[in-house]
């Protein structure tokens, strides 16, 4: 018979589980480590040495080259603007609509909930959406990115369920004290919903930071392209592209790896501060449908 520890756990299962977790961690960290280390490697070592993990010499030339690139700095600034303002628009519209749909007394609530669910299964299509954006004169504007993805149906449904789990007694007592709906939402509902708000803020921030297809579709001016579009252009660079990058150093893998690191760095820096809310927000929002 198999022996169990004092807590009734199977030691074999524990070893296998921990081994799989360690293996998964290695598979995830290895490519990331390769990207980071290659970004610090000199161009000559990359061309002559071949595959390696730890370079013989460390240099910041690739990062200095990117920081001096007008295109990269502009794309990075655009990505920050799109992420910050886009996430604000996303959370304002999503949280307000989710709060309204969480109220059973709202007239037409079932129809609106069905319309939200319907958009999860069927979309308007690329061409109709483009025609709508064009008719609203939003082409080549950041608002074309903000409004076309303003509300994610899945996020709204989970956030609505989270609001439904808040005790009604709190809202009733606030209304008795003369609290209006907007004040109730701002002063009571949002503070109690901080785990869900932080979770979906992170989701929307990642979505906006990684904006690529909509940016290519709606932004014609290259000076408004976000970072992901710039990375795609850089990865496909030929000898006659990116006018400000005229040296051969631009085609070094170190520059491309440094660009990837700088692209991932903001989200990696923000995620640890939101991690404690992440699991709690998803779990509490998915308990009640």
Automatic annotation (TrEMBL):
Residue ranges occupied by any ABC transmembrane type-1 domain in the UniProt entry: 76-274
The keyword Membrane appears for this protein: yes
Record GO cellular component, one term: plasma membrane
Presence of the UniProt keyword Transit peptide in the record: no
Sequence intervals crossing the membrane: 20-40, 79-99, 111-131, 143-163, 184-206, 254-274
Subcellular location: Cell membrane
Keywords assigned: Cell membrane, Membrane, Transmembrane, Transmembrane helix, Transport
Membrane topology, from the record: Multi-pass membrane protein
Biological process terms in GO annotation: transmembrane transport
Family, per entry: Belongs to the binding-protein-dependent transport system permease family.
InterPro entries xrefs: MetI-like, MetI-like_sf
Protein's recorded name: Carbohydrate ABC transporter permease
